[in-house]
Amino acid sequence: MPEEDSTLRISKEEKQVLETARAAWEKQVGRKITAGEFVRFLAEHYLKGLKKESKQEKTAAGSHLVPLQEMKPAQPQIVAPGPQVSLVTCVRCGKQIGWRSDLSSEGYCPHCGIYLRLMGK
Ligand SMILES: [Zn+2]
């Protein structure tokens, strides 16, 4: 049985990109890493990111609850100043909404029209 060739062949350009990223990693982390280890690090990092993403998608698809953010200074040109205006981020389009939480805890995103319900207080 021929021995399995586990060598990964990459082009010069690809190797250069990898080496640049590896050098940046070594500089940032402050220790040496072999090319093989670095590829594994990248792959694991990528898979972790994938898992996170699919989790977030599930949450967003399952409900349209949006968390109240910390109160930020009101921006007069976008949001009328007042203690009852909360800035929330739309789960679908990611834009910020100045929400009059004293009027309603439910409503539609003015940017994309999705139906939102405030959670928390
Ligand atoms: Zn929206």
Features:
single chain; 121 residues; alpha+beta; 2 domains; 3-stranded mixed beta sheet; two-stranded antiparallel sheet; 2 helices; 38% helix; elongated; binds zinc ion
SSE layout and pairing:
Blueprint: H1 12-29, H2 35-62, E1 65-66, E2 85-89, E3 96-100, E4 106-108, E5 115-118
Parallel strand pairs: 1-5
Antiparallel strand pairs: 2-3, 4-5
The structure holds zinc ion.
Detailed description of the structure:
By secondary structure, the chain is α+β, with helices and mostly antiparallel strands. It contains two helices and five strands; from the N terminus they run H-H-E-E-E-E-E. The chain has helices at about 10-30, 35-60; strands spanning about 65, 85-90, 95-100, 105-110, 115-120. A three-stranded mixed sheet has the order 1-5-4, with no helix packed on it. Strand 4 and strand 5 (about 115-120) form a beta hairpin. It binds zinc ion (ZN). The site of zinc ion (ZN) has 8 residues, from loops.
Quick overview of this protein structure:
This protein is an alpha+beta fold.
